[in-house]
Specification:
The protein contains 16 helices and 18 strands. It has helices at 9-24, 31-47, 49-60, 64-90, 131-138, 152-165, 178-186, 198-210, 233-245, 265-279, 296-307, 358-367, 381-389, 426-431, 446-449, 458-462; strands spanning 93-94, 107-112, 115-119, 142-146, 171-173, 191-195, 215-218, 224-227, 257-261, 312-315, 319-320, 325-326, 329-332, 349-355, 373-377, 395-398, 419-420, 433-438. Strand 6, helix 8 and strand 7 (215-218) form a beta-alpha-beta unit. The longest helix is centred in the N-terminal third of the chain and has 27 residues, at 64-90. The radius of gyration is 25 Å and the shape is globular. The protein binds nicotinamide-adenine-dinucleotide (NAD). Nicotinamide-adenine-dinucleotide binds at residues 119-124, 128, 146, 148-150, 177-178, 181-182, 195-197, 200, 203, 218-220, 252, 344, 346, 372, 414, 419. This is Aldehyde/histidinol dehydrogenase.
């Protein structure tokens, strides 16, 4: 028996049919109408900020500053960007001049794909659910959102508000978990966006393959941090501690673990301790500035990894099962075979793994799946280039963590096991746009290109 609200299979079929009909109606061919819908999404968030803060607090114990800074503001910002730029993005593009083809008037038409399914996770249930759909609607698609059952309060609020703000021909919400998503995957979509873990991504991809439906995968993995002793250590420690604590480490681009030169480990750990004390002067367990873990299952998983570490807990370490609370924790002296290095932590624990040098750090990273983000803290341009030039990852960031997800003009996405495809701003528009090649060939062209028609005479061939 499910404990969260669900949409029945019959309703799912009706919603699917009505979105198909909505797309066929052609109302989103009008850019002006797309803009109204984008504006409505922005108002949906802005008008209800207080309710979103409450829902986030109920689901994730999330401090409201984090909700507004990391999720609501950036998603409203994306609405504004799309509203201002959609005419430019949607304009057909002339092909570059080519003497052989200019008379055909070759253009690339920017066309919607159709009806988009977005299956989103619990950890940023607005940014991952509504964010990419702004671009999808800007591109003229109708959209169906299946938010996470784990973030039940935020998902429920979105399901309540979407019918109040959005045209039901354009955007609908289906609530539920595995059974409902499985039902959705039996239906035909024109593109599926899935954000979540790699295991489920394989299920989604296999289902989409049956109908050759294109898929965008926004996944996760272990995003490393490489520390150069020649870094601004205090700043690095504060930023890494913040990146590990925000949303209780349940961030797809959270710094997962740190690789530190062996003889610099003491100093690095001391700096992390100082940051921890600065952030939580009365102790993390007494702070209201830390989110909690989403579910008892995830709490048990993360605590189990911590209980089994062979490293030494040097910062934090407190847990409270009743509140699903885990303090931001640093574990030093971690080795490759440690429990904390076995999977994406998705919790507020930072394993510090000492390495001999940067080459050993790069070797370790390159032995493993390409991560969603890779971070380096260094004041040395050559060091940073060496790290970026000798690794592959979704994003490559020096001297900060996480906030690139909100940076205008940058795509957000992984590579290989951390995902394929990307979104954010114009990249969302592009992801859900079909580039339709178009030409109009005038009759007189045959006076020049008539040689293409049979019979293929020797004279034509020598031309
Ligand atoms: P999840 O894979 O458990 O769930 C995500 C969605 O998939 C939910 O809507 C859920 O209902 C659905 N789902 C779960 N099991 C399913 C099944 N068997 N069949 C069909 N659908 C199923 O992911 P999660 O735990 O909510 O999110 C955590 C993961 O998401 C982490 O790995 C994190 O790194 C990743 N993530 C990535 C991004 C990104 O943008 N790249 C953003 C946020 C989270």
């Amino acid at each position: 028996m499910s404990t969260h609200p669900t949409t029945s299979p019959e309703e799912i079929e009706q919603i699917h049919a009505s979105l198909r009909q909505g797309f066929r109606s052609g109302k989103l061919k009008s850019i002006a109408y797309r803009k109204i819908q984008i504006l409505q999404l922005g108002y949906l968030l802005q008008d209800n900020i207080e309710r979103f803060k409450e829902a986030f607090a109920a689901d994730l114990g999330r401090p409201s500053l984090e909700t507004v800074f990391l999720e609501i503001d950036s998603t409203i910002g994306d609405c504004k960007l799309a509203y201002d730029r959609v005419e430019k993005w949607a304009k057909a593009e002339k092909a570059p001049f080519n003497l052989n083809f200019f008379a055909f008037g070759p253009v690339v038409r920017k066309e919607p794909k159709g009806v988009i399914l977005n299956i989103s996770p619990f950890n940023y249930p607005v940014w991952t659910a509504i964010g990419p759909l702004i671009g999808a609607i800007a591109a003229g698609n109708c959209v169906l959102l299946k938010p996470s059952e784990l973030s039940a309060n935020v998902s429920g609020l979105i399901a309540e508000l979407v019918p109040k703000y959005m045209d039901p021909d354009v955007m609908r919400v289906v609530l539920g978990g595995v059974a409902e998503t499985t039902k959705l995957l039996e239906l035909r979509w024109d593109h599926i966006l899935y954000t979540g873990g790699g295991r489920v991504a394989k299920i989604i991809s296999a289902a989409a393959a049956k109908t050759l439906t294109p898929v965008t995968l926004e996944l996760g993995g272990k995003s490393p941090v490489i520390i150069d002793p020649n870094c601004d250590l205090t700043t690095a420690a504060r930023r890494i501690m913040w990146g590990k604590s925000v949303n209780a480490g349940q961030t797809c681009v959270a710094p997962d673990y740190a690789l530190v030169p062996r003889d610099f480990e003491d100093k690095f750990v001391e700096a992390l301790k100082a940051a921890h004390i600065e952030f939580y002067p009365k102790g993390a367990i007494n702070s209201s500035d830390i989110s909690t873990i989403i579910s008892p299952g995830h709490f048990t998983r993360i605590k189990g990894l911590l209980d089994n570490t062979s490293g030494k807990v040097v910062v934090g370490g407190e847990t409270d099962a009743e509140r699903k609370f885990i303090a931001p924790t640093v574990v030093r002296g971690v080795t490759e075979t440690d429990s904390l290095m076995s999977e994406e932590l998705f919790g507020p624990i930072l394993p510090v793994m000492p390495v001999d040098n940067v080459d050993a750090a790069l070797e370790y990273i390159n032995k493993h799946d390409h991560p969603l983000a890779l971070y380096v803290f260094s004041q040395d341009a050559k060091f940073k280039s060496k790290v970026f030039d000798n690794t592959q990852s979704g994003s490559a960031i020096a001297n900060d963590v996480i906030i690139h997800g909100g940076a205008d003009g940058l795509p957000f996405g992984g590579i290989g096991p951390s995902g394929s495809g990307c979104h954010h701003g114009k990249y969302s528009f592009d992801e859900f746009t079909h580039l339709r090649a178009s030409m109009d060939s005038p009759s007189w062209i045959d006076k020049i290109l008539g040689g293409r028609f049979p019979p293929y005479t020797a004279k034509k061939e020598s031309f």
